[in-house]
């Protein structure tokens, strides 16, 4: 199915039927407007039923859609005067992670994010959006530069995970991600993180320590892919759908768990249906967050960030022996 997902099949078929009837009515003397109105009413109800009750696995498929907007798409639509910067000053440049200086409504900011490709050739060049250590070191270099010149940092997260290959491990993949976590925790400028597609494992977390964390409605954020979790738990990757439901990796689940601050609504069917409209929704939350954060004193900014992550996954303990004797 071209540009469609399995759960969307009834919607696409009905849209095609309506288009066919419109074309037939246009080229003949037969008036089918009444039938078309009935089908459009049915389509509206069907879209509401499908898009407002999407299963976790459906959202995973939307997050992975080939036409889903990327970091560079949003940079073009939200920011001005973007100047991309390259290299980590240690090993080289990594096209799987882009970043640079831009202006946001006249305010200088630093923008970094994972970058996937649109086709096979570009995906190979960008390593399918899975950064090497030099990608995370480049991002950290730009964030430290932002701190020096007092520029807010905006991170776009969209990766299956950091590249797990031998060369990446030899060059210190784990250390690079850990260093980012450490440094971002104490950065003295506001950090805004937005999950725009897949937020996979440490590869996502390497850009995910922020004062505000947002997720697009149909994005995902997890420690492992549903296929990987199914392979570990049940020795069968085909049970990914079951794993996606159990893992609670969708935006509504993570908002409930306190991992993210806000869900950014998406166009019906996903962000790829209206990229400019989706950029406007992201723009709204960035503006609101910056207005809130720029007036916060540095000491409080860092303390609030620390407390934010300290309370994630908070649990309470009970004394099992007391429970037994009571």
Automatic annotation (TrEMBL):
Its main location: cytoplasm. Pathway: Lipid metabolism; malonyl-CoA biosynthesis; malonyl-CoA from acetyl-CoA: step 1/1. It catalyses: N(6)-carboxybiotinyl-L-lysyl-[protein] + acetyl-CoA = N(6)-biotinyl-L-lysyl-[protein] + malonyl-CoA. One of its GO terms (biological process) is fatty acid biosynthetic process. SUPFAM superfamilies: ClpP/crotonase. GO terms for cellular component: acetyl-CoA carboxylase complex. This is Acetyl-coenzyme A carboxylase carboxyl transferase subunit alpha. It comes from Lederbergia citri. The gene is accA.
